[in-house]
């Protein structure tokens, strides 16, 4: 068990290195192959008005002429020990973990990411609880009342949920509930949980529901399919043959087995979500990681995009690890060795 | 009053393709301490019969009529809840494949404990002790340690023993074993059959063994009921069925049975064709399309459904051939082939 965890941790670290190397290449090697010179990159940092000499000096100071491997090494070093950036007007400190330094905002990336993380975490936490509870309950009921009006209705709504993008459902919800009925927050605001839990929830309820609608739909369909499979298993018949009450047959024997794949997917989904619910955050103007990423992409701010990508990859790798370990807890047939 | 009595049991399933008559008018009786073997091919209705006795088709799509009397109580008309309270306690079942019939996520002990505590208001500790007792009784070594194992950590034979322990945990008076040895190695089959015979004697339960394997029922049964197309086509004591079988289908079953004492060069005598569709059951005698002796019925085989008639002392046969014809065919055509 311990060796398994250690092995998985090493694997997770290796994965992060690969992700960072690939991301780094995409941003720094691919443009070079396409004919972009180090000076062009430096130019982006110092502004269009700068003279050719300034640009060259900056490119020199940032080491943009060095081989890519050296530059990548410098970036990795920065993650662990921090680094300094000199872009012509003075030396800027970027303490560890330095995921890069934005020359557009003249800020290290990491503190920005840390600032925005609570917003995204709050969004992910609330939404995931809602979608898990609703999705699984609807799925179970649908499976038990198969072909009933409830089942058909739920599955049509689920199909809509899976198909409609959050920027659409989010805007519809905003215009109906916030601007029409005025019962929910108009979006764009965020109150930290530690400051005022009531306001925290009030501001987030609509983004939660929007995001939950998308995922609850998928989970309802998954749970329904899983329950239909499981309830046809021989061990369900055995449980009934023992004289077990039907509610226990469903809850203890049926759902227990049907939940295993759900748990797996849930872990991964939450991991992905913590890395930024891009569409939902944009629809509600929430200043989370997803919004940060879209702003960075629009501004072509490479260090920010790189930093965001690494953080998102980190969450997904961690989620994967947790799911693998959890799987062994949920299903005794899985051996960790 | 007999302990278990079925009167004209019918279990029909409406489907999109038509009405599936899985069991179509089945009657039999069984006393405590006796063993009945129900034999037939896949789809002959034997498993549906057993699930109906346990009431596991109640509330589903099945249309059930007729009567099932268990120890003076009628079960077809009884409430689902009442039948549930009898399941596991008064009547229990052993299933074919113990790997799929046990929940993979719970230990063997937990599953026996659960079965015991449904019907006995005892603490988990007491129930666990009982589970260990039961596991020991069915011959599982080191039961106090194995009680915490998961089903996948058991071998096939051990799993079936655990399944039997679970079924017997509440001391049921009726035990139904549905193909209890089919999924097991041949060497383990005999052990399980021995175990079931011993336990039945200890518990004095009525035992129904459902199988397609005449060898299994030969080991255990007092009486044998042969099913075909949802109906009983021959019923009698084990001696009747093995020594004086009168139905062409039973002859076929006996001929399909591999036997060690037969010459290796001798071919088995398989039954031609495949089991009948239960939606469009053949007209007349359901077996007539596969019956080698159908021409001798003078056309009745394909037009008239034969009745189940007593031929001699409790031996019932559903066949258009006359008693004399059947005995003649058995003595001159079938028996010599089986014994050669």
From TrEMBL, chain A:
It is found in: Cell membrane. The keyword Cell membrane applies. GO terms for cellular component: plasma membrane. It comes from the Bacteria. CDD domains: TM_PBP2 (cd06261). Gene3D superfamilies: MetI-like. Keywords: Cell membrane, Membrane, Transmembrane, Transmembrane helix, Transport. It is a multi-pass membrane protein. The chain crosses the membrane at residues 9-30, 119-144, 156-179, 199-220, 257-279, 305-330. One of its GO terms (molecular function) is dipeptide transmembrane transporter activity. The keyword Phosphoprotein does not apply. InterPro entries: BPD_transp_1_N (IPR045621), MetI-like (IPR000515), MetI-like_sf (IPR035906). Residues 117-327 form the ABC transmembrane type-1 domain. Belongs to the binding-protein-dependent transport system permease family. This is ABC transporter permease subunit.
Automatic annotation (TrEMBL), chain B:
GO terms for biological process: peptide transport. GO terms for cellular component: plasma membrane. SUPFAM superfamilies: P-loop containing nucleoside triphosphate hydrolases (SSF52540). GO terms for molecular function: ATP binding; ATP hydrolysis activity. Keywords: ATP-binding, Cell membrane, Membrane, Nucleotide-binding, Transport. Belongs to the ABC transporter superfamily. This is ATP-binding cassette domain-containing protein. It comes from Herbidospora solisilvae. The lineage of its organism: Bacteria, Bacillati, Actinomycetota, Actinomycetes, Streptosporangiales.
């Amino acid at each position: 068990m311990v060796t398994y965890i250690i092995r998985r941790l090493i694997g997770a670290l290796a994965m992060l290195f690969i992700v960072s190397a690939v991301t780094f290449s995409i941003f720094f090697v691919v443009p070079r192959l396409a004919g972009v010179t180090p000076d062009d990159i430096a130019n982006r940092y110092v502004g269009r008005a700068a003279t050719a000499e300034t640009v060259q000096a900056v490119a020199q100071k940032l080491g943009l002429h060095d081989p890519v491997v050296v530059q990548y090494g410098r970036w990795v070093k920065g993650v662990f020990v921090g680094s300094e950036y000199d872009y012509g007007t003075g030396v800027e400190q970027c303490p560890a973990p330095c995921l890069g330094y934005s020359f557009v905002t003249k800020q290290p990336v990491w503190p920005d990411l840390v600032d925005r993380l609570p917003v995204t975490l709050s969004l992910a936490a609330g939404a995931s609880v809602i979608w898990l509870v609703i999705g699984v309950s609807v799925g179970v009921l649908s499976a038990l009342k198969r072909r009933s009006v409830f089942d058909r209705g739920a599955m049509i709504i689920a199909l809509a949920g899976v198909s409609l993008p959050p920027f659409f459902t989010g805007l519809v919800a905003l215009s109906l509930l916030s601007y029409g009925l005025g019962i929910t927050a108009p979006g764009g605001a965020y109150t930290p949980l530690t400051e005022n839990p009531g306001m925290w929830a009030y501001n987030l309820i609509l983004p939660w529901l929007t995001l939950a609608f998308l995922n609850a739909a998928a989970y309802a369909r998954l749970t329904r399919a899983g329950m239909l499979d499981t309830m046809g298993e021989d061990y369900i018949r055995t449980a009934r043959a023992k004289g077990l009450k039907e509610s226990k047959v469903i809850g203890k024997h049926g759902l227990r087995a049907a939940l295993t794949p759900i748990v797996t997917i849930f872990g991964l989904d939450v991991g992905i979500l913590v890395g930024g619910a891009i569409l939902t955050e944009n629809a509600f103007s929430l200043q989370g990681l997803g919004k940060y990423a879209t702003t960075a992409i629009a501004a072509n701010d490479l260090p920010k995009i790189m930093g965001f990508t690494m953080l998102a990859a980190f969450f997904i790798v961690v989620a994967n690890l947790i799911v693998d370990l959890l799987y062994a807890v949920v299903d005794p047939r899985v051996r960790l060795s | 009053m007999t302990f278990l009595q079925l009167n004209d049991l019918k279990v029909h399933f409406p489907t999109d393709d038509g009405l599936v008559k899985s069991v179509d008018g089945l009657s039999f009786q069984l006393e405590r301490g006796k063993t009945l073997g129900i034999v037939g091919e896949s789809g002959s209705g034997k498993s549906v019969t057993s699930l109906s006795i346990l009431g596991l088709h109640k509330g589903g799509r099945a249309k059930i009529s007729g009567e099932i009397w268990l120890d003076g109580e009628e079960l077809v008309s009884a409430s689902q809840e009442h039948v549930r309270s009898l399941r596991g306690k008064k009547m229990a079942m052993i299933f074919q494949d113990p790997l799929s019939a046990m929940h993979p996520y719970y230990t063997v002990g937990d599953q026996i404990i659960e079965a015991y505590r449904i019907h006995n208001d005892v603490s988990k500790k007491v129930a666990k002790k009982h589970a260990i007792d039961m596991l020991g009784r069915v011959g599982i070594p080191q039961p106090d340690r194995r009680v915490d194992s998961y089903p996948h950590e058991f071998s096939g034979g051990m799993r079936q023993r655990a399944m039997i322990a679970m079924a017997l945990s509440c001391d049921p008076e009726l035990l139904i074993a549905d193909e209890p040895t089919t999924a097991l190695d041949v060497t383990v089959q005999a052990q399980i059959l021995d175990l079931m015979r011993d336990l039945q004697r200890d518990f004095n339960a009525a035992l129904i063994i459902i199988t397609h394997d005449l060898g299994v029922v030969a080991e255990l049964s007092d009486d044998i009921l042969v099913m075909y197309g949802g109906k009983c086509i021959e019923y009698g004591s084990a001696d009747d069925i093995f020594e004086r079988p009168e139905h062409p289908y039973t002859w076929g079953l006996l001929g399909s049975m591999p036997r060690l004492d037969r010459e290796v060069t001798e071919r088995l005598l398989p039954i031609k064709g495949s089991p009948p569709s239960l939606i469009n059951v053949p007209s007349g005698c359901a077996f007539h399309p596969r019956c080698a002796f159908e021409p001798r019925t003078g056309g009745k085989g394909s037009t008239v459904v034969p009745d189940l008639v007593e031929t001699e002392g409790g031996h019932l046969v559903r066949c258009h051939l006359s008693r004399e014809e059947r005995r003649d065919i058995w003595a001159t055509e079938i028996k010599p082939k089986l014994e050669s």
